[in-house]
């Protein structure tokens, strides 16, 4: 396995995937597990990971994704969606899941729940909550990108798609979720033009501020 820096240098936003190479279940499951285990504010996990295997659906997603080739050519396509709201029902469900994991009764979590509900109701409007949820999604995206790189699985994170169309195609409106970002996964085609370009990043001294 590559070390972390080697893996991060190796990874790049893959434009051309090898259509003959498929991810095996073990690699795919490890990447999905990295997403599931990602941290989120208060641990609320306001996300769903939609793995699209249906080829007709992938063709439609490509159409609504500015015809980007990765959407049909990558081995796998994952759309990450975030919750539109944070209802008390949702919080209660999270409390139940936490109580189960920690082998305690839900009652012992009542202070945590009150604190959480107060924080949610202190947000000025529904849009702020929706945006807060959407930001959490990027943490899981980042962790999945790095996990994939460590497993030498290629990826392209993608925001270039029509969100409303994706929500409709994936039935997200009914679930109360909205599409945020997509992750295409697979193996690079060595003829990918992007491979010829050196990684472009600002220098350490330019972006790290020490006080
Ligand atoms: C949130 C996000 C959205 C992106 N959307 C797209 C996209 O729609 N299509 C695409 O080809 N690349 C997309 N990229 C890839 C970036 O262009 C790429 O990561 C960046 O240029 C840095 O290059 P590197 O990842 O190869 O090091 C996206 C990257 C991120 C993080």
Report on this model:
With 211 residues, the chain is of the alpha+beta class. It has a domain at 4-83 and 133-196: NADH Oxidase. Helix content is 47%, strand content 14%. Strands 1-2-4-3 form a four-stranded antiparallel β-sheet, with helices on both faces. The protein is globular. The protein starts with a helix and ends with a helix. Bound molecules: flavin mononucleotide (FMN). Residues 12-13, 15, 68, 156-160, 181, 199 line the site of flavin mononucleotide.
Instruction: Write the H/E string, N to C.
Output: HHEHHEHHHEHHEH
Secondary structural class: alpha+beta
Number of strands: 4
Q: What's the N-to-C terminus distance?
A: 36 Å
Short description:
47% of the residues lie in helices and 14% in strands. The radius of gyration is 19 Å and the shape is globular.
How would the blueprint of this fold be written?
Blueprint lengths: L3 H7 L14 H12 L10 E6 L2 H9 L6 H4 L2 E8 L4 H15 L7 H12 L4 H25 L3 E5 L4 H7 L2 H4 L1 E10 L17 H4 L4
Antiparallel strand pairs: 1-2, 2-4, 3-4
Helix pairs in contact: 2-7
The structure holds flavin mononucleotide (FMN).
């Amino acid at each position: 396995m590559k070390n972390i820096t080697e893996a991060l240098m190796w990874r790049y936003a893959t434009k051309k995937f090898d259509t003959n190479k498929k991810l095996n279940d073990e690699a795919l499951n490890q990447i999905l597990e990295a997403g599931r285990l990602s941290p989120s504010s208060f641990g609320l996990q306001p996300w769903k990971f939609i793995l699209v295997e249906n080829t007709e659906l992938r063709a439609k997603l490509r159409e609504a994704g500015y015809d980007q080739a990765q959407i049909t050519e990558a081995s796998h396509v994952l759309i990450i969606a975030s919750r539109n709201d944070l209802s008390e029902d949702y919080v209660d469900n999270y409390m139940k899941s936490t109580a189960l994991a920690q082998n305690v009764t839900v009652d012992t979590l009542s202070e945590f729940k009150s604190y959480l509900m107060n924080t949610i109701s202190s947000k000025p409007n529904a849009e702020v909550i929706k945006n807060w949820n959407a930001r959490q999604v990027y943490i899981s995206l980042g962790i999945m990108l790095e996990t994939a790189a460590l497993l030498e699985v290629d990826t392209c994170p993608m925001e270039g798609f029509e969100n409303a169309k994706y929500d409709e195609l994936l039935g997200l409106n009914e679930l109360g979720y909205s599409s945020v970002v997509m992750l295409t996964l697979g193996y690079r085609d060595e003829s990918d033009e992007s491979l010829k370009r050196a990684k472009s990043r600002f220098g350490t001294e330019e972006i790290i501020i020490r006080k």
